[in-house]
Amino acid sequence: xxxxxxxxxxxxxxxxxxxxxxxxxxxxxxxxxxxxxxxxxxxxxxxxxxxxxxxxxxxxxxxxxxxxxxxxxxxxxxxxxxxxxxxxxxxxxxxxxxxxxxxxxxxxxxxxxxxxxxxxxxxxxxxxxxxxxxxxxxxxxxxxxxxxxxxxxxxxxxxxxxxxxxxxxxxxxxxxxxxxxxxxxxxxxxxxxxxxxxxxxxxxxxxxxxxxxxxxxxxxxxxxxxxxxxxxxxxxxxxxxxxxxxxxxxxxxxxxxxxxxxxxxxxxxxxxxxxxxxxxxxxxxxxxxxxxxxxxxxxxxxxxxxxxxxxxxxxxxxxxxxxxxxxxxxxxxxxxxxxxxxxxxxxxxxxxxxxxxxxxxxxxxxxxxxxxxxxxxxxxxxxxxxxxxxxxxxxxxxxxxxxxxxxxxxxxxxxxxxxxxxxxxxxxxxxxxxxxxxxxxxxxxxxxxxxxxxxxxxxxxxxxxxxxxxxxxxxxxxxxxxxxxxxxxxxxxxxxxxxxxxxxxxxxxxxxxxxxxxxxxxxxxxxxxxxxxxxxxxxxxxxxxxxxxxxxxxxxxxxxxxxxxxxxxxxxxxxxxxxxxxxxxxxxxxxxxxxxxxxxxxxxxxx
Length: 607
Prior knowledge:
By secondary structure, the protein is of the alpha/beta class. It contains 19 helices and 25 strands. The longest helix has 23 residues, at 219-241.
């Protein structure tokens, strides 16, 4: 009887969806799996990796879309494509069994998650789950589930009707089906907190909040706040659904070692992020998820099932000294920062290398642009710059704080490690620049394919973020062991990565070292080229598309020289370039003149 009831429910659900899905049932028009060599299509039954999607709202028409929503017809097309092309939708039970060695995951495994508990989870997603037999995981926010019917819910920066989200009765019905598992999306951590004196609001799960009269929240207080929130959210779901959630989806995908330790202590078994790439059952607290945005096409959705591990990234980088924008008058500083942001947009760059410290005339570190007990404060300014550049200019922000210079300034490796711990705790960032460090192992050490590549048809060793990250994690402990300067550099990166998991590593390769080993461990390998010599024939004859060429000099380069040099390198195969120094306020080099040669928005086109 139970089996027949499920079949009836599925049929009834499909009937309710006909009005939505009829336009997308022209299956013959759907794109199929791309043609590949026979060897590339070989499936491995013991593949250890899987891909996870982080969907949100599902709407019927384009006029109902927001940034994270998808239309129902595209979701149905995606579900049908999965079935037609040999993909298996797995559950958290499958991941758990694979982690314990009880059962391997299928060669093409995908986990489907839906965040926020929108009403469409019940009216659109649940009927599809029944019809296709696909298990899903849905992450609920406690604060959005508690209000009574007819009331308002504070969602983002606006008030929305409580009916925007599912009810507990609907959640209980979906849970009884055995296809829907509910996770916690926090109780209240979607509410951002003020994270610096300038008033930027940042994700509360990883931010030590700031209050003018109290200063910064302590690290211990942040851990207590996260613990209290997750404990309350877990208890709420257990009370309403009869079982505690075993999975946690971090709000905005932001997490750190503090939160991970708290989640483990509360009994969570899985944690979802918004990191890129596939995931491994052996890393249940770092389940990476692809976030579909702007109603992606079926082609975009399927491409993110098996991202190309050898797909070359495009970087256009320059640098910024916060001191050039800083003024004791807040309004003057903010005006200067605004001008720097607009110029960055005009240049078409993709990332910015920002100094974390102030130096004297001799180049010695004398103060920090972030709060720390290890150095005098030059101005609490770095967090503001980073957040504004990331959100307004849509840039990646890479922090520059050379570990050897920090050791020279502080004289004690323990103080250096505390300095980097403070930097990671206080400043949002996308990566860090490792300088004056040599790769201690030959490149051949990393020739064996990384395990996470096994589920990708035709994949080979490459430079994709998850491959590089996997290699780096495998040798991180050995690199950080010892007492030498190179070990201190890896210890510094470990401290930053603990506070900001998923950081990219930019390695400024020493002039007397080969870049081969650095490429194996760094997301970006920077090779310094003196701009005066950049057009020399011997340099242009050895351009490597896997490297990023970092043009340097004693002053900001002239626009015509930089433009000509960047184009020459690109014409010979270079994909990524950057330059330093740069003067944002005086527009040196002139953005309008140099952009045609360096802009990632113009040449080559940003993907």
